[in-house]
Amino acid sequence: MALDVGADFEKRWLNAPQAVRQTYIDDLTRICELFSNDVRLEDWLSKNKQAQLQSYETIENAYAELKAQLLEEARIRRQHALEQSLAKKRAQQQAYIDDLQLDERLQHQAQTQQLQALQQQLSQESLTYSERYTTTPKLRFEATRNSVISPEIQHALDNLKIRLELEAESLIEQIQHSVASLNQKIQQAADEEIRYLLEQHSSSET
Fold first, then answer.
1. Which distant-in-sequence residues (6+ apart) come within 8 Å of 23 by Cβ?
2. For residues 38 and 36, what is the distance between their CA atoms, to the nearest angstrom?
3. How far is the C-alpha of 151 from the C-alpha of 86, rounded, in Å?
4. Model-level pTM?
5. How far apart, in whole angstroms, are the C-alpha atoms of residue 184 and residue 71?
6. Which of 106, 110, 154, 164 has the most CB within a 10 Å radius?
7. Position 178 in a domain
8. Domain count, the chain
9. Range of the domain at 145
10. Cα separation, 147 vs 125, whole angstroms
11. What top-level branch of life does the organism fall under (predicted)?
12. DSSP per position, 48-80
């Protein structure tokens, strides 16, 4: 007689667990024993009934183990994909924070240079005013003798002092604002990563 094993038998056979394939082979071997002349049918039927129960149990256990293995492999793949995603997310956030810190350093350097240039400018202007009103020994003598600074010089020095204070306060406020902005951006990036980790953890549990 012709044995019909169905479509795609080779694929189904190779995909079956080894324990299942061995069970099928044992069943076929047991069936082939019927062709032997010295086999008693009653003994074979009794033995076959017990063997079939064992075969069903073996096949069921083998497919249960295969299912558990496939689920574990799928879990590992999901975990690996999640770890890669988190690593990529952290790298992007770290690059973003590095860019922010670099930008803040450049701004701080620029502001420091501005302060130095302002200081040099004010020093030069102060020197210019001083030279303007102390160009002759007579003026120096009068200033020393009277120990009084003229209203014009005092006014110029007051203006320089006020200007220096205003420029310094403005630059200090800019630096404080930049530092506060950087801290806020870093905190925001950290909050986003924590929220992302919690969302991924919740989704993996479901």
1. 55, 58, 59, 62
2. 6
3. 69
4. 0.45
5. 43
6. 164
7. yes
8. 1
9. 13-205
10. 22
11. Bacteria
12. HHHHHHHHHHHHHHHHHHHHHHHHHHHHHHHHH
Tokens for 148? 């009084």
> Is 8 part of any domain?
no
Measured in degrees and rounded to the nearest 5, phi and psi for residue 134 equal -130, 40
Rounded Cα distance, 61 and 34, in Å: 28
Give yes or no for residue 118 having a pLDDT over 70.
yes
Query: Does residue 7 lie within any of the structural domains?
Result: no
* Residue bearing the bigger pLDDT, 70 or 36: 70
**Cα distance from N-terminal residue to C-terminal residue, the chain:** 52
Angstrom distance (rounded) from CA 51 to CA 73:
33
Helices (H), the chain: 9-15, 18-32, 41-133, 137-146, 151-205
Give me the helix-helix angle, 151-205 and 41-133, nearest 10°.
180
C-alpha dihedral sign at 32, 25, 30, 66 = negative
Note the pLDDT tens digit of each residue in 149-200. Answer: 567 667 777 777 787 777 777 777 776 777 677 667 777 776 777 777 667 6
Q: What is the pLDDT of residues 138-148, one digit of tens each?
A: 444 444 444 45
Q: What is the pLDDT of residue 6?
A: 65
More confident site: 151 or 53: 53
112: tokens are 């420091």
Query: What are the structure tokens assigned to 124, written together?
Result: 């030069």
Q: Is it the case that residue 53 has pLDDT exceeding 50? A: yes
